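sorry for the late reply, my laptop died twice this morning and i had to redo everyting from scratch. anyway the thing you sent over, i finally got around to it. pasting the sequence first so we're on the same page, its 388 residues, then the predicted structure underneath. double check i copied it right bc i was rushing
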Amino acid sequence: MDDSSWGMETRLIHAGEPKPRIHGSAIVPVFQGNVYEVSDEMAYGDIPYPRLSNLPNHQVLHGKLAAISGAEAALVTSSGMSAISTVMLALLEKGNHVLAQSTLYGGTHGLAQKHLPSLGIETSLVDLDSPKEWKEALRPETTMFYVETLTNPLIHVGDLEAMVAFCRQHDLLAVIDNTFGSPVNFRPAEWGFDIEVHSASKYLNGHSDLIAGAIMGKRGLLEKVKHGLDYFGGSLDPHACFMLHRGLRTLSLRVKTQNENALHLATFLEQHSQVERVHYPGLKSSPSYERARKLLGGGGGVLSFELHGGRQAANQLLDHLDLFVNGPSLGGVESLVTRPAATSHAGMSPEERAKAGISDGLIRVAVGIECATDLIRDLERGLDALTD
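ok and here's the structure:
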């Protein structure tokens, strides 16, 4: 049966699974061994070996990830940064130039601004809402445009359609970090992107118990990336593959609940007197609302908000919450809160954070799958305590 006709939930369960099942098992067992029989006829890439990412645990994930994203091929890696760095190092070479969204994840920003220049690869950071700025930054040696589905921590949706059209016009590789979107809410291949990367530790796994990365995209490009991955060594351990495989099966159920919960929380927060501003593309007040409605299947599970009382009020609120875990991650079944100025963006100067719109009183919420009423009640108690 052609899995392209299946719905997302069916693909998450059945796509990529081995036929016939291994010893009849409904679950692919963990192939932990690293020595397998070989023959002289085998090509190097066909030799079963964990570093070559070709054991059954890898292969089932590759097939499933390609199916749910609508891509031609997929790979799993040892972390999100392994996925990002492998794509860049495998597809870029000395003398190349990259355009990148200015509001990048910190690890990606460091790679682009500090490490790639040592290899002769330069990056220009641009506003994803300013095609004029892209054109001005374009060079004859530009080969890649790198963006993110939703910005962190202000949860803005950039002009992704125009960006893809710009890449087609100028023969650039269109690469996107879709960690915040997940294939449930956004499938980049359907919008013309060449490659998408993920920190699979987040939504794809969804249980805050492993580190992994994923790369999906066009087959020819993924072959080049696979050769790079073989050399760089960022393969995913078979047991971690097993856990990611298990987590993926509930991705659609989790993300849909997180979409609903996040919208409930954002709506509540927008109406509270202690809250100055809420950043969430599912709200009609968001500048990203219309764009998100067109591009995304949901507003996502991450929102942020600012308090009138600034940093002091933010820290006081975090101290009064019971259900939310104060931790700088996202995508798990539990709800998390963090103050980006003190965690994810602490490496930026106060001036840089101010320029990026990240105030000291900004709180980011990664919403889980708990009862929305309970989460709102917890937030309400914490916010009401600010008036005491």
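The chain has two domains: 3-248, 251-387.
thats about all i looked at so far, will dig more tmrw
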